[in-house]
Amino acid sequence: MSLRGPYTLFRKEVLRFKAVALQTVAAPVITALLYVIVFAQMLSRGAPIQPGVENLAFLVPGLAMMSLLQNAFSNSSSSLMQSKLNGNLVFVLLSPLSPLEIFAAFTAAATVRGFVIGGGIVAGAALFVHLPAPAPAVVIAFAVLGGALLGALGLIAALWATRFEELAGFQSFVVVPLSFLSGVFYRVDALHEPWHSISLMNPFFYLVDGFRYGFFGDSAVPPGRSLALALAALLVTSTAAIALLARGYKIRT
Q1: pLDDT value at position 60?
Q2: DSSP-assigned states of every residue in the chain
Q3: What is the pLDDT of residues 21-59, one digit of tens each?
């Protein structure tokens, strides 16, 4: 397999969001940092969410991962959806790229955008709060996993949707609730039943929990289990996305 074709598509996708970086990168970073500034005083007076960790510091990895996930999804889904509606997706389909190569290019670009946004939030928040990050490799691993998972999910949503309204509905009723209810603002192991068990069925929770472990060395679930479950979710989602691309689902007549 030549890498020139998928790299060219990947570069085109990166240049697409880079061309409007103020909207696609700067805006999500600034929004998340506003959360940090607004919550700074309130969280400093509350009871500790996680023992030994400042409340504001606890919040930052969750916000970074939530923004990473939502923007990785937006990148792949909006790009593919726009190509479908504008009719220029045909040029990608007529190229010698395989479904796997198309999937890899879109997903890699989504991961890059999510990674840049998550990194920007962490770097900006570090000006306000100390983030020790004793396991940077774990931080990077979960960031890449999260970006790839939501990039793949974005492709599935864009293939399924026939209008931008349907795509927006998928994001509003699936991606946003799952990301907000993944332990971004609280520790899931402090929840009462049945909410604790329900939270453990949310794949986004394992991404947030594992990502937070990389910063503080503590998590509600062992990081190895979170990593395995996140990889399993990525494998299932990727397989589904590649299969739909191979079938030409709603993109070939």
Answers
A1: 93
A2: --SHHHHHHHHHHHHHHHTTHIIIIIHHHHHHHHHHHHHHHHHHTSPPSBTTB-HHHHHHHHHHHHHHHHHHHHHHHHHHHHHHHHTTHHHHHTSS--HHHHHHHHHHHHHHHHHHHHHHHHHHHTTTS----S-HHHHHHHHHHHHHHHHHHHHHHHHH-SSHHHHHHHIIIIIHHHHHTSSSSS-GGGSPTTHHHHHTT-HHHHHHHHHHHHHHS--SS-HHHHHHHHHHHHHHHHHHHHHHHHHTTTT--
A3: 999 999 999 999 988 888 776 666 666 677 778 888 889
Question: What residues pair up with 53 in beta bridges, in sequence order?
Answer: 50
Question: Amino acid letter at 133?
Answer: A
- How do residues 135-170 score in pLDDT, each as one tens digit? 999 999 999 999 999 999 999 999 999 999 999 999
Q: CA-to-CA distance for 38 and 230, rounded, in angstroms?
A: 31
248, 84 Cβ separation under 8 angstroms: no
Residue 201: exposure state from Cβ atoms within 10 A (0-12, 13-18, ≥19) = exposed
Q: How far is CA 24 from CA 69, 104, 152, 250, in A?
A: 13, 21, 18, 27
CA atoms of 185 and 168, how far apart (whole Å)? 24
CA distance 132 to 213: 11
Rounded to two decimals, the pTM is 0.92
First to last CA, the chain: 27
- Token pair belonging to 251: 């993109």
